[in-house]
Each structure stands twice: as C-alpha cells, then as structure tokens.
Amino acid sequence: MNLLNAIKEGAEKAPFVMEGPESDWVPIFMYQDGHGTYRTGAIPEMTRENLAAGADGLGRLLAGAEAVQAALVLPVWLTQIQRSGVGRTERVMVTHVTRNHTRCEMATVIRSKTATPRLGS
User: pTM for this one?
Assistant: First the structure.
C-alpha cells in the first residue's frame, strides 16, 4: 500500500459521505508501524490551547509504535496578506512523513450553497 496515495484518495472521497454544504473534512491520521501494520484513526481538533499537547501525543504514539511512515489529513485556512487586505482560503492539507522525507500538499475546498464541498486544485 502507498500510504500517501491511500490517504489522498480518502480525502478525495470524503464529500461522498458528507451530509451537506456545511460539512467539513475530519482530521484523519494513518501510520505504518514497525511490523508493517497500517493503522488509522480520527484525531481531536487541535486548537491553540491543545496544539503542543496534541503534537506531543502523536509523536509519542509514532515512537512507541516504531512507525516507519505516517500521514495526516487536516482542514486548514490559508491566510494571505495583500495590499487590499487579508484574505483566507479554505484548504485540505495532506502531510506524509517518513524517517527521511516530508511531503505536504494542499487542495482548495470548493463550496456551494446546495452541494457538499469538493476539492479543487
């Protein structure tokens, strides 16, 4: 299994199980442990108040599992500061890490008033 492709495919299919236009992507975490087993789960929302503790907890989980790779899907907001003001763009971020490599990709969230959101480029 290619973990990066698997988690990206899951993020792309998420709109098919969403309930409506206001639905959001759920943070999802997947990793391959030191024995080759793939594991997955949802993670709690990380806020300013619990970000450090959440990151520390994920790090301890990966170390304890002797993980060889991990991937994370998160809904995020990209803030852009321009002369005309501050703008925000809703995105879904996919991050994949191994012991020697990190890759991060983002896709724009496209919303409408009548359909579930979908991913753009």
Answer: 0.80
Which long-range contacts link 43-46 to residues 24+ away (Cβ below 8 Å)?
A: 43/72
At 11-51, the pLDDT tens digits run 888 888 888 999 988 888 899 999 999 998 777 777 778 88
**Domain definitions of the chain by residue range:** 3-115
User: Environment class of residue 92 by beta-carbon count within 10 Å: exposed (0-12), middle (13-18) or buried (19+)?
Assistant: buried
- One-letter amino acid at 7 equals I
Instruction: Round to whole Å and give the CA distance between 79 and 1.
Output: 34
Q: Which of 74, 72, 67 is nearest to 37 (CA)?
A: 67
Residue 37 CA to residue 43 CA, distance in Å, equals: 19
